[in-house]
């Protein structure tokens, strides 16, 4: 259970820290006049970013991709968007147009894990229209197939390589690669302003922010900046409706990672005796153990947890591409978060039975083919070896927690869907439930099962202030990767403003 005093401090920090806080002025959004939302002054750094005449955009329509048999059965655009002319910073994106009704369907900007992971992950591993064929690698180009459960069935989706240095995004000035939560969020807002200016036919479409994992920190910050920018009538106004987060990291280590021990106990990884010893000696804080007894108990528990795949506890322990701990003296090394375990290159490679890791391995091969880069229209000489997640550049986690931002957004009328795979031990759903409950919103729809094809697909509960939480039964770290059919059904209902 989250300590109320802890959450109160986070809310206070988010609302009072000078470069993270913003005053709101109540107004009605032009695109949704029946809802009242508060907007207000925007930070000076954003004004600077938006005022720069960043380098011109460059985009192309892609009809064929190496490894995909025949023409693509969906409309794909790739391109660069300059977000800083002075430094030559250009963010690369993939845009998949809705296969249903692109003139009226929602537009979603989808962020993936990270920081430093390419938007390509979202396109082929999460909600996009392609999947890799899981066949043993024989030295030839990995093959791609159409994903029948792509969210492009119901929405247009932008997959962004952000921050700069991720995927194919680049900058002329190497110093620019030293970014953080705030600066990359501001660049994302700049990207969106320019993208909608270049794509005016989508300006009136309902717009959503979505993503998984580290997106749980970034999306609430970006949403608040957009809301405030709209309040100042900056053109083009982005028709922001709501946001959705899958297995989100919020930055609050207490809430995200402190729930690992209760979860491990609940699924039978640790014994009653170990769990009771942890409760008796750690005073509720398992992330930063202080006493010698607590350290000993937590280390014993971590040894047991290391026997399972934390991202999906039913999986075999697999070679990644590969884990590389990043030193961070502010954290106990006992529990490394996903933020600190970034995939890099490895001399070994995962076996085909390692579902997620093997797909990541194939993506690293596919994206580094010259034919692939030519098809995507990658600017020559801008990126050396492509890696799915880049941990080589410094990154500042200067948004300690996004919980305060989420409280602000939901209390000002924005709907939020927070969902979690119930087999994720890295950021267990118990911690997500805890910080949502800390808002003390009243329950408007009691916990119940939600169904797909007459079977339970998970459990959901709806709160006041338009916040919905749902588990995805059988889902792992990126829930929709493991349960794509259920993920599409969930998105279709929620985007359609219907109960799950």
Automatic annotation (TrEMBL):
Claim: Transferase is one of the keywords in the record: no
Gene Ontology MF, one: serine-type carboxypeptidase activity
Keywords: Carboxypeptidase, Disulfide bond, Glycoprotein, Hydrolase, Protease, Zymogen
GO biological process: proteolysis; secondary metabolic process
Entry keyword Hydrolase: yes
Family to which the UniProt record says this protein belongs: Belongs to the peptidase S10 family.
Name this polypeptide is given: carboxypeptidase D
Protein's organism: Triticum aestivum
């Amino acid at each position: 259970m989250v300590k109320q005093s802890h959450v109160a401090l986070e809310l206070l920090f988010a609302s009072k820290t000078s470069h993270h806080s913003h005053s709101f002025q109540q107004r009605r959004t032009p695109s949704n006049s029946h809802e009242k939302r508060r907007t207000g002054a925007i930070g000076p750094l954003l004004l600077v970013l938006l005022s720069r005449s960043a380098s011109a955009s460059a985009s192309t329509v892609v009809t064929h991709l190496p490894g995909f048999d025949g023409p693509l059965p969906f409309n794909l655009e790739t391109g660069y968007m300059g977000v800083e002319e002075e430094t030559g910073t250009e963010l690369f994106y993939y845009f998949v147009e809705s296969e249903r009704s692109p003139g009226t369907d929602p537009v979603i900007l989808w962020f993936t894990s990270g920081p430093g992971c390419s938007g390509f992950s979202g396109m082929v591993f999460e909600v996009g229209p392609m999947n890799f064929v899981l066949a043993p690698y024989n030295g030839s180009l990995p093959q791609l197939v159409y994903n029948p459960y792509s969210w492009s069935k119901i929405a247009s989706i932008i997959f962004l390589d952000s921050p700069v240095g991720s995927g194919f995004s680049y900058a002329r000035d190497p110093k620019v690669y030293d970014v953080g939560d705030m600066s990359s969020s501001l660049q994302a807002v700049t990207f969106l302003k320019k993208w909608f200016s270049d794509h005016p036919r989508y300006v009136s479409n309902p717009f959503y922010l979505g993503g998984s994992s580290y997106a749980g920190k970034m999306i609430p910050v970006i949403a608040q900046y957009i809301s405030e920018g709209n309040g100042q009538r900056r053109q083009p106004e982005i028709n922001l409706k709501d946001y959705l987060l899958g297995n989100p990291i919020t930055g609050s280590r207490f809430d995200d990672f402190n729930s690992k021990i209760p979860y491990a106990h609940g699924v039978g990884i640790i014994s009653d005796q170990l769990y009771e010893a942890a409760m008796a000696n750690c005073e509720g804080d398992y992330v930063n153990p202080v006493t010698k007894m607590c350290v000993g108990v937590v280390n014993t528990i971590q040894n047991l947890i290391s026997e399972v795949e934390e991202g999906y506890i039913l999986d075999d322990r697999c070679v990644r591409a590969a884990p590389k701990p990043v030193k961070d003296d502010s954290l106990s090394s006992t529990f490394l978060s996903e933020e600190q375990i970034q995939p890099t290159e490895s001399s070994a490679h995962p076996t085909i039975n390692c579902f997620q890791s093997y797909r990541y391995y194939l993506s690293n091969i596919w994206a580094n083919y010259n034919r692939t880069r030519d098809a995507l229209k990658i600017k020559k000489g801008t990126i050396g070896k492509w890696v799915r997640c880049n941990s080589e550049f410094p990154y500042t986690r200067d948004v300690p927690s996004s919980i305060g931002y989420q409280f602000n957004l939901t209390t000002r009328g924005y709907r939020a869907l927070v969902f979690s795979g119930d087999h994720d031990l890295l950021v267990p759903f118990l911690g997500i439930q805890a910080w949502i409950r800390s808002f003390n919103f009243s329950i408007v729809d009691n916990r119940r099962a939600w169904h797909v094809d007459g079977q339970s697909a998970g459990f959901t509960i709806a709160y006041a202030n338009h916040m919905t939480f749902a588990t995805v039964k059988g889902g792992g770290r990126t829930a929709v990767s493991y349960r794509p059919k259920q993920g599409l059904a969930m998105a279709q209902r929620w985007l359609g403003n219907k109960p799950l």
